[in-house]
Structures are given as structure tokens and as C-alpha cells.
Specification:
The complex is a heterodimer of chains A (about 325) and B (about 325). Chain A has about 325 residues and is α+β, with helices and mostly antiparallel strands. Chain A has a single domain, classed as Ribonuclease Z/Hydroxyacylglutathione hydrolase-like (Metallo-beta-lactamase, Chain A). Chain A is built from eleven helices and 16 strands. Chain A has a seven-stranded mixed beta sheet. A seven-stranded mixed beta sheet of chain A has the order 10-11-12-13-14-15-16. Chain B has two domains: about 35 residues, no CATH class; about 280 residues, 4-Layer Sandwich (Metallo-beta-lactamase, Chain A). Helix content of chain B is about 25%, strand content about 25%. The longest helix of chain B has 17 residues. The chains are: A alpha+beta (about 325), B alpha+beta (about 325). At the A-B interface, helix 1, helix 2 and strand 1 of A face helix 1, strand 1, strand 10, strand 11 and strand 12 of B.
Chain lengths: ~325, ~325
């Protein structure tokens, strides 16, 4: 009799292999070929009478630079990754837009890295349109696209690979403060070289391709029935989150209030390289997460692992996200 | 554009603009809700093996008295509520695993089988969604002979769902459940039902099943491990290819929200609860020390995670969904 021992659990070592081989190699049926693809990445749930579909755009895995967390050393970041069972020196960033069907309007909140990125990333990202189609939603039926902020992983999906409108029948709603700041040529001229210049250039590329036909929105407005904007600045100057509410249910679609939760929910004082104003982003983060804990409100996080819906608890000096169990039915 | 729909007119929210819209204007109908959940399958690699976690569904039900035998019900309910289960309820998911070793297509556990009007028995549909033909399965390995693990060997007509598969059952469990003496001694209705179920499912198949022993490979790279306690022949598996391995815990714990957090709690289904606790602690002390990836039949889909020590027990850290294989 074999007990659970370190040896057999961890090596799979077998005493009686030879004897067993005689049995298992007998039938000559051809082996089934591997499928080679992941399941389509979408997941559906209800918020009151509103139907929400999380549609993943995929994930990007890359070697991170020393200043990836601007106020922490590589060693500290690696310790954070190890605590979450991620390999050292590598960052995995998932992208998860959501689709909201209010019954009256079909709205997409953030758009992912864009279809053109599917080829470029060898299929690891730029998956949104494929997964949207797999979920049974027609992009032509989308009435409204709501943008949380102007970083490329949120806006590039507004365009098809040939720079046409990805949602030809949709009104594009953008945060007014974001529009004012980023479309200001003076702000662009004062922005540092490198990444910030690239952010300004990219968003001009995208919004010029749609003829700058966008509708700026203010915080605390109901953008479509049941979806309300909330100012959450810091990550970018005009960053907005969105509350989906119906009946007695609410979900907080946070955008980038935190980047990946296994680092920045656990450690809200860590400043992601992408946070334009690290201190303001941290203040916003603590305010939002204290509210989520107090209200026991679920969060839907763009950079949380798919399906990126979670409860939030206080834990140590930060918070811990508890992923919502996959429900096989809606 | 405002649509003239029953919803917004009755709600009155947009009544003014709707009324002002010219009726001849071809308003686009609001998109109907999709109303359907994604298929429950998820792929992962273990070395050269391609594995698929396939969801058979989940049951949410009012927590029965005695669900946790050795703590007051209030305490068990509090733990469920702390894990965000609906008040007074408990949710138990079911997740068989398919392993393509390259030479064999192996299914570990089978779910409930066809179960009309129930949120379980989804294995066949989710397998179809994953593009897997039941006829292609070479080996079905059953971890133990409880209905949620074994009944899915049958199709709706009572025939074999996997007609070309060798069915492998743990020798110790087979001996236990097929013993008329043991059946006569069944202490309660639950156990009586389990004995009857085993006999029903395997009627006419006694000569066709292969009984496996602990320590043997049930398929290339898949080793059966003694994890007894939950049932006398309850088996876990080490799945290994190259330097990669995962542990398929079967029912070493029932739902982790209760029984990993509190490994000394006795779920009603554990036949020898003291032994089940010993097995659980031994298994998870090792899995935690080695940061081993664990697959749990009753973990929430896709039912994989790392386990770490926390308080007096353990905590499951679910893996992040990988959008590529």
C-alpha cells in the first residue's frame, strides 16, 4: 500500500510501473490529438436585472523593469510575486473589459489592447473581439462605449486593425477631465519624453481615427441606465470608475484604481509605474477600497485575473481580494 | 438615440425624449440579453500533458443539519457566510479532470451523469463544448465510488457514456462498497443509498472494470495515492510529465471554504473522519511546503490552486486564469 509520502506526491514515482505497463499499453486505439487552445474567455453574471459579460482581452507577460513599482525595489516586488505564486522578474497583466446589457442599452466599458494586437502578441492579447463573438454578442449591436481613461490597453480596441471604428453604431463616452488634459497640446509639450509622450501620441492616433467624435462625460452621471461614473483620479488625471447598480445589487467597475491585485490590492501604498500621480492614486485606492469593504460591494477589476470579479477584505496594512466562485449558471 | 420601448416608457426615465422622437424613425431594438453562461472548461499544461478541467455543475442548497458533524451548525453557517455563500446555504461544485498524455486520453472522475432539471450533470455538454468526443476517452479513472464521482460513466439511456474506455476503480473501494456484509451494516440512509447506487451503476459491469492498487500508474504519468478516510479506498493522484506535476486531491477536502480553512472539521460524507483528517493534514502539509499545484474536485471551477498554511488550517489561493494555453 502506498501512503502519501513526499516522494510519491512530488515525483509521481511508482514502484510497480513495469507491471502496470502491461495493462495500459494493450489497446491500440490512436491517441486523441491535443486541442491546443484555451477555452473562450468570457463569463456572465447578473447585477439585479442588468446582464454583465466579462470578456477577456488576454494577458501580457513580460520581464519587468527596476522601476515597475516606483517606490519599491525589485527584491520587494519579487517577494510580493512569490507570495502570490508568480515567478520572479516576470509580470503577468491581464486585461478584462466588461459588456453591460441594461435591457435598454448595450455598453462596453473599456476596449482592450485592440484586435491588431492579436497578431503582434501571438494571440496572448488582443482577444477581445474573438471572445465577444464567442459570447454571442454582436459588436454592431453595441450602443455605447465607455472609456475609463486614455491608456492604450483601454482605448486601442476602439479601432479595427485597419483603423476603422470597431463599434460602428456606438457613441463613445470619455471622461471630460481626461479629454481636456490629454488633448491639450500644451500638456503634451510639457510631458516627459518616453512613455508619457507615447501615451499622448497613441491617444491622438486613436481619437483622430474616429474623427475626435466623442462625448465627454462628467463624474456622478448616469451614462446609461444603471451605470454611473465616479471620479477616481491619480492613475491618470481624469480616470473614472463606474458603478453598475440595479435593484439592491451593485458592482464597482474600478478600471485601474489598482493595477494587478496580487501586488497593489495587497499593498495599496505601492505605486505602479503606470500611475501618473502615485500619491493621488494611492489616496484614491485607499478611499475606494475602504468604501468597498464597508459597503461589502464587489469589485470588477480590469487587471484582475479573469473573470476579475471579487469581494474585498481588509488584510494586514492592505486588502485581499476574494475571487467570486465561477457560477455554472447565470 | 432613445428607443421607444416598454421598459423606458414604463420606467418614465426617458419618457420626454422618447415621446419627442419621430415614430417613423427606425429605432434599433435593444440587444436581448444573452442569458447563457460560458461553457465550463479550462485547459492547462502539465509538462507535455494537455489537461482540461471540466465542470459538472454546482449545487447550492440549504446547509443540512450535520453537514459538519463535529461543530455546531451556527459555526459552520458562519464559515460559509464568511466565504460569501448565500445566507444559510452552502455551494458545492464538481470538477472532473481530463488528461491527454499524448498516448492516452484519461478522465479522472465523471460527475453525476445525466440529471434532468438539476444544476449538475453538465460534464457531457461541457466536454462537447471543449470539442472532446466521449468515444475518444481511453481510460476512466474513478477516485472513489461516491455518486458525484462515478455516476457519470453512464449516459441518459443507461449505457456507457465512454464506450471505448477502460474503467478503473480503486480496488479497496470496490471491495468495501460491493461487500454485502458492509451494506447490511450501513449505519444511515445516506450510506444505504450509496451502497445501492454503487450496485446500480455497476450492474453488469463487474467483469469489465479494472481494479487498481495504490502506488500503481493508472495511466502513463498518473499515479494512484492512498488518500483513504473519506472512503476506505479514496484515492488522490499525482500527475507528472517532465519536471511538472500537479496533485489531484479528489475529496481529500470537500469545499475548501470550510474544510481547508478548518481541516479538523468532519464533513458528513467522510466515512472515517479521523483518518480523513489525518490524510488531509498530511497531504496539505506537504502540498504547502512544496508549493504544489493542487486540483480539487470540489474547488470552484477551474478548481486549481496553491495551498498555504493560515491560522490553524490552510487557505486556497486560486490560480489566475491563463487566457492562452
Amino acid at each position: 500500500m502506498t501512503e502519501i509520502t513526499r516522494r510519491n506526491m512530488l515525483t509521481g514515482a511508482v514502484a510497480a510501473t513495469a507491471a502496470v505497463q502491461l495493462v495500459t499499453t494493450a489497446p491500440a486505439q490512436a491517441a486523441a490529438p491535443p486541442a491546443g487552445t484555451q477555452a473562450p474567455g468570457w463569463y456572465r453574471y447578473k447585477v439585479g436585472s442588468i446582464e454583465v459579460t466579462v470578456v477577456t482581452d488576454g494577458a501580457n507577460k513580460f520581464k519587468f523593469t527596476d522601476n515597475h513599482v516606483t517606490n519599491k525595489s525589485r527584491e520587494e516586488v519579487n517577494a510580493g510575486l512569490a507570495a502570490a505564486y508568480y515567478e520572479k522578474d516576470m509580470m503577468t497583466t491581464p486585461y478584462n473589459p466588461v459588456v453591460v446589457n441594461t435591457g435598454a442599452k448595450l455598453a462596453v466599458i473599456d476596449t482592450g489592447t485592440g484586435e491588431a494586437n492579436f497578431e503582434r502578441s501571438k494571440g496572448t492579447a488582443g482577444q477581445f473581439q474573438r471572445n465577444l463573438a464567442a459570447s454571442g454578442i454582436d459588436r454592431n449591436a453595441v450602443d455605447v462605449v465607455i472609456i475609463s481613461h486614455f491608456h492604450g490597453d483601454h482605448i486601442n480596441g476602439l479601432l479595427t486593425p485597419d483603423n476603422k471604428l470597431a463599434y460602428p453604431n456606438a457613441e463613445i463616452l470619455v471622461p471630460a477631465a481626461e479629454w481636456k488634459y490629454f488633448m491639450d497640446d500644451g500638456e503634451m509639450s510639457r510631458a516627459p519624453q518616453g512613455r508619457m509622450q507615447d501615451v499622448f501620441k497613441n491617444l491622438r492616433r486613436v481619437f483622430d481615427a474616429v474623427g475626435r467624435k466623442v462625448t465627454p462625460y462628467e463624474p456622478n452621471k448616469e451614462l446609461v441606465p444603471g451605470v454611473t461614473s465616479v471620479a477616481t483620479p491619480g492613475h491618470t488625471p481624469g480616470h473614472n470608475s463606474h458603478v453598475i447598480a440595479s435593484g439592491s445589487s451593485k458592482v464597482y467597475v474600478q478600471g485601474d484604481v489598482t493595477h494587478v491585485p496580487f501586488l497593489f490590492v495587497r499593498h495599496p501604498d505601492w505605486h505602479a509605474f503606470y500611475d501618473q500621480d502615485g500619491k493621488m492614486a494611492e489616496d484614491t485606492r485607499r478611499k475606494v477600497y475602504d468604501m468597498l469593504v464597508a459597503e461589502k460591494m464587489m469589485v470588477q477589476g480590469f487587471h484582475y485575473p479573469f473573470p476579475s470579479l471579487a469581494h474585498v477584505e481588509k488584510s494586514g496594512s492592505g486588502y485581499r481580494e476574494i475571487p467570486v466562485p465561477w457560477s455554472p449558471t447565470i | 438615440m432613445t428607443q421607444f420601448t416598454r421598459r423606458n416608457v414604463l420606467a418614465g426615465a426617458l419618457a420626454a425624449s422618447a415621446a419627442a422622437a419621430p415614430l417613423a424613425f427606425p429605432a434599433r431594438a435593444a440587444a436581448p440579453p444573452a442569458g447563457k453562461q460560458a461553457a465550463g472548461f479550462y485547459r492547462y499544461k502539465v509538462g507535455q500533458f494537455e489537461c482540461t478541467s471540466i465542470n459538472d455543475g454546482a449545487r447550492t442548497f440549504p446547509m443540512p443539519d450535520g453537514f459538519v458533524r463535529n461543530v455546531p451548525k451556527d459555526q459552520a453557517l458562519a464559515a460559509a457566510e464568511a466565504a460569501y455563500m448565500p445566507k444559510g446555504m452552502v455551494t458545492v461544485p464538481f470538477n472532473p479532470q481530463l488528461i491527454n498524455t499524448g498516448s492516452k486520453l484519461v478522465l479522472i472522475d465523471t460527475g453525476f451523469g445525466p440529471t434532468p432539471n438539476a444544476p449538475v450533470g453538465l460534464l457531457a455538454a461541457n466536454m462537447a463544448a471543449a470539442g472532446i468526443d466521449p468515444k475518444a476517452i481511453d481510460i476512466v479513472v474513478v477516485s472513489h465510488l461516491h455518486p458525484d464521482h462515478t455516476n457519470g460513466i453512464k449516459n441518459a439511456e443507461g449505457g456507457l457514456l465512454f464506450p471505448n474506455a477502460e474503467i478503473k476503480v480503486p480496488a479497496v473501494d470496490w471491495a468495501f462498497w460491493m461487500s454485502d456484509d458492509n451494506m447490511a451494516k450501513a449505519p444511515n440512509d445516506m450510506m444505504k443509498n450509496y451502497f445501492a447506487n454503487t450496485r446500480k451503476v455497476y450492474a453488469g459491469l463487474a467483469d469489465k472494470v479494472t481494479k487498481y492498487e495504490w502506488g500503481s500508474e493508472v495511466a502513463p504519468g498518473i499515479t494512484a495515492l492512498d488518500a483513504s478516510g473519506h472512503t476506505p479506498g479514496h484515492t488522490a493522484f499525482a500527475v507528472a510529465s517532465g519536471n511538472a506535476r500537479v496533485l489531484v486531491q479528489s475529496d481529500v477536502t470537500n469545499i475548501p471554504e470550510l474544510f481547508l480553512r478548518n481541516p479538523d472539521w468532519h464533513v458528513a460524507f467522510d466515512i472515517d473522519p479521523q483518518k480523513a483528517v489525518q490524510t488531509r493534514r498530511k497531504f496539505y502539509d506537504m502540498a504547502a511546503a512544496e508549493k504544489a499545484l493542487v486540483v480539487g474536485f470540489h474547488f470552484t471551477f477551474p478548481s486549481m490552486g496553491y495551498v498555504e498554511k493560515a491560522d490553524a488550517g490552510y487557505r486556497l489561493v486560486p490560480i489566475a486564469w491563463n487566457p492562452v494555453l
